[in-house]
Amino acid sequence: MRILFLGDIVGKPGRKVIAEKLDSLKKKYKTDIVVANGENAAGGFGITEKVYQELRELGIEVITSGNHIWDKKEIYQVIDQEDRLLRPLNYSPKAPGRGYGIFNVKGKNNIGIINLSGRVFMGPADCPFRVFDDVIESIRKITPVILVDFHAEATSEKRAFLHYADGRAAAILGTHTHISTADSQITPAGTAYITDVGMTGVQNSVLGVEPQAIISRFLTGLPQRFEVASGDGEIRGVFLEVNGEGQTEKMEVVKSQ
Ligand SMILES: [Fe+2]
Ligand SMILES: [Fe+2]
C-alpha cells in the first residue's frame, strides 16, 4: 500500500498549499491513500465541519488530530458522525469521537489508523502504551497494515513508543511539534518512524503562527491573541510503501514548497 501522510495542517495557508500541490504529489507517489493531521486546520486552532469536508474534498481520506481537536466547539456535535476524523484514542472514553478506524483502500486492502497522544508536557490522557495494547490485536486480525499518529511533545516518549510498538505497526509517525526531524528510519522489524513529520503551513513563522504575538508573550508573560502566519505554505509529510505483511519497505520524507 502506498501511503502519503501529511503533518499538522495549519490554517488557510496549509489548506491552500494542499489545494495547489496535493494532486501532483498523489500522482508522483501513485498513492493509494492520503492521511493528514488536521488539528490546526481551522484558523490554526481546531477543525470545523466545513474545513473537514474541504480537506476530504481535496483528497485527504482520513484526518487525525491531537490536543487542539476540541478548540472549535462545534466539532463536539459532529465528530461522532464523521468516521474519517480521529481524535487521540487515549482521551477519556466519555469524550465524543473515536481514536482509531479501519478503512478500506480502493476496494482492496484495509488500513488501520490509530491516533494517540503523548502525556509528557501534554494535557491529561490515559497511558498511550497500554491503550495501544488494548486495540492492536483486534486490528491486526483485520489488517496488518497499521499506521499510528503519535501526537506528542517529548522525543523520549516518542522513541520509547517506537521500541514498545516495533513490529506491531507499519508506521509510527510523530506529530504536534510542527518541526520536521531528520531521524526517519525503518526498523529491522519493518516499522517506519519519524519523531516529527513537521507541519503543512507557513514555515517562516513560529510553528505556523505570526511571530510577533509569540515574542510578546515570551517578553511579557501576558496572554496574547495568536494569528496564523501569512505567506505561502509548504507541505511536510512522509511517503510510505507498506507490504502485505504490514512492513514498511520504503520511506521518503516529502517536502513541497
Ligand atoms: Fe499541531
Ligand atoms: Fe498538537
What this model shows, in words?
- By secondary structure, this protein is an alpha/beta fold.
- The protein has one domain (2-256): Metallo-dependent phosphatases (Purple Acid Phosphatase, chain A, domain 2), CATH 3.60.21.
- Helices cover 26% and strands 23% of the residues.
- It contains 6 helices and 11 strands.
- Strands 4-5-6-7-9-8 form a 6-stranded mixed beta sheet, with helices on one face.
- The longest helix is centred in the N-terminal third of the chain and has 19 residues, at 11-29.
- The two termini are 25 Å apart.
- The mean pLDDT is 97.
- The structure holds fe (ii) ion (2 copies).
- Residues 39, 66-68, 151, 176 line the site of one fe (ii) ion.
Span between termini: 25 Å
Biggest sheet, spatial arrangement of strands: 4-5-6-7-9-8
- Supply the number of helical segments: 6
Q: State the name of the first-level CATH class.
A: Alpha Beta
CATH superfamily: Metallo-dependent phosphatases
- The value of Rg in angstroms is 17 Å
> Which overall shape is indicated by the principal axes computed on the Cα atoms?
globular
- Number of strand segments: 11
Q: How confident is the prediction overall: mean pLDDT?
A: 97
Biggest sheet statistics? 6 strands, mixed
- Based on secondary structure, the structural category is alpha/beta
User: Approximately what portion of the residues adopt beta-strand conformation?
Assistant: 15-25%
**Fraction of residues in helix:** 25-40%
The CATH architecture can be named as 4-Layer Sandwich
Reported by name, the CATH topology is Purple Acid Phosphatase, chain A, domain 2
What is the count of structural domains? 1
Uncertain stretches of 5 or more adjacent residues:
none
The ordered H/E elements are EHEHEHEEHEHEEEHEE
Bound molecules: fe (ii) ion
